[in-house]
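Example A, followed by Example B.
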Amino acid sequence: MVANLFKLPRIPLTMLFMHMVFSTSAHAALEVFEEAYELNSTQIIRWPLRAGDSLIIRPCIGCSTRALRVSAETRYATGFNTAPVSLRDLLRVKSKLHDTENYLIAVFFLPDKLLVTHIVLQTNLK
């Protein structure tokens, strides 16, 4: 009986230790690789014209502008689940749109590098 009293505290301590180790490793695995903004056309201050240019945005009312760089690896689309298009084609589609409330721009980027991974111009929101 005395031997069992000494073993009981080990079990909760072991479980506490395992919980601490596994929860720490689980949190360490949750890193932010990519962030995104959902914007309307009034929040785009300047569109990039080529790789190496910056997309200048205003993420929210009252926020300062933010520059996100596009590269040769940046991908563009005119809708989710659609085939990729070139930046030139994306800008051509954007130039034909007049109703600013009828489309949105999703910008995905790497926060540590401020590098845009892809831009989606969603036009079929009706």
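Example B, a separate protein, is given below in the same form.
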Amino acid sequence: MTNRNPFNDILMIMDRKTNEKMPTYFYLGTVTKGDDIGYVVINVGGLEYKEGENELMRAARMRIESGDKVLLISLDGGQKMIILCVVEEV
């Protein structure tokens, strides 16, 4: 079995052309409970996603704190979110 690159799947989904309304893939969220609390909860449009309930995924070394703004992607209609990065204000 070959290992598939997940980024290729993301690009394929984003490249699809349909006549339907394009779904939303990217979301902005606010960290309500971060690594400083002990478990991560992110508010996205009034919905809370919890890392302990397999609703959130992130890179192993990514550290996020309460109050951070984050960019997320969902490939399954908002059921699970992948944290891409912390959004910095300039």
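On Example B: The mean pLDDT is 81.
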